[in-house]
Backbone:
């Protein structure tokens, strides 16, 4: 696929990878539809090859309206980049049912719903590409991020399934597994932390905060990650996985090579759980 005039929809463009990807794709000559829940957060992106559209991955009506608008304007969607999402941090046994459902609705159900809406326009044309932005956390789970890790693991598996199911119709599916990327993810994740006063994890509250901010340690710039994603979208043949960002390859290899108990010990120490043993 030639990037020039390719119609691309990107979700979660208010900051981080999504915002950087809009700039990268527009520079390649794509017609980019940048989306976010709040249009004012992406108003500065409007112009040139970039259009802005409201899209909330927890609101099917807004997703349908966004897709309908792009089809009306352009007649097609060549590429979808599912980037919107957030990280619910905290001990799993402390999370409320509402917190768990919201994490899965945003990072999993919303992504698949948008894919369903877009795929129906790609399939008749026998052409298209869907990139789902997961995380190395979807492969290597860590303490205090169980809900987030589970959502990204689910997205990985769903992407593998979709790749096989959509390939006969000429639609590719790519999984993007970022490591540490400079963004507001850590601050947003820490805002989600809410440990009960009677929680058994109160003594390691600092470790929970450290996990929330872990993605902002030794980071790579978002524009470097965006370039890697853009290269993958228009490669021939396209890769099925893109590991990018600081530490991405390292963490994937640690999960593959280290015995589980050894890796558990390392991660428990990194986020303070060894103090509870003491």
Residues:
């Amino acid at each position: 696929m030639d990037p020039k005039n390719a119609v691309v929809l990107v979700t979660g463009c208010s900051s981080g990878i999504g915002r950087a990807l809009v700039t990268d794709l527009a520079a390649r000559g794509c017609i980019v539809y940048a989306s976010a829940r709040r249009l004012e957060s992406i108003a500065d992106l409007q112009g040139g090859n970039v259009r802005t559209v409201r899209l909330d991955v927890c609101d099917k009506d807004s997703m349908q309206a966004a897709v309908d608008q792009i089809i009306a304007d352009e007649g097609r969607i060549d590429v979808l980049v599912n980037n919107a999402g957030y990280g619910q941090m905290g001990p799993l046994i402390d999370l409320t049912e509402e917190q768990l459902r919201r994490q899965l609705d945003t990072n999993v159900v919303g992504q698949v719903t948008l894919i369903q809406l877009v795929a129906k326009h790609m399939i008749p044309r026998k052409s298209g590409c869907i990139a789902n932005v997961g995380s190395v956390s979807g492969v290597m789970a860590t303490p205090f991020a169980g809900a987030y890790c589970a959502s990204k693991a689910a997205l990985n598996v769903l992407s593998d399934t979709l790749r096989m199911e959509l390939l006969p119709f000429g639609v590719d599916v790519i999984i993007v597994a970022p490591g540490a990327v400079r963004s507001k993810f850590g601050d947003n994740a820490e805002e989600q932390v809410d440990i009960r006063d009677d929680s058994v994890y109160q003594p390691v509250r600092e470790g929970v905060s450290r996990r929330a901010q872990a993605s902002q340690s030794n980071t790579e710039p978002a524009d470097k990650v965006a370039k890697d994603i853009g290269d993958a979208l228009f490669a021939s043949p396209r890769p099925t996985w893109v590991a990018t960002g600081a530490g991405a390859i390292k963490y994937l290899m640690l999960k593959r090579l280290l015995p589980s108990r050894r890796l558990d010990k390392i991660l428990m120490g990194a986020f303070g759980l060894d103090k509870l043993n003491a």
Notes: The CA atoms of residues 70 and 76 lie 7 Å apart. Residues 7-277 form a domain with the Rossmann fold fold (CATH 3.40.50.720).
